[in-house]
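User: If you would, consider this record:
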Amino acid sequence: MVSETSDVESITLFLVLAQDLNTLSGNNELIKFADDSTLLVPEKTDVSVKQNSAAYRMWLKIIV
């Protein structure tokens, strides 16, 4: 029997794992809250949204 994790456990796990998630550029900002994250990328930056998104997806594949 597989036990389901509670919402609190899921959020706690995300917060612990999200500490490893960072932007590829100091110009970009990643806001992490509970089980959600937002990537802010200025118009002029050295790393594109596409590059940051690819890195984020790679991070997700590692933890899932």
Notes: The first strand starts at residue 29 and ends at 33. Helices lie at 7-18, 49-63. The chain has one domain: 7-63. The longest helix spans residues 49-63.
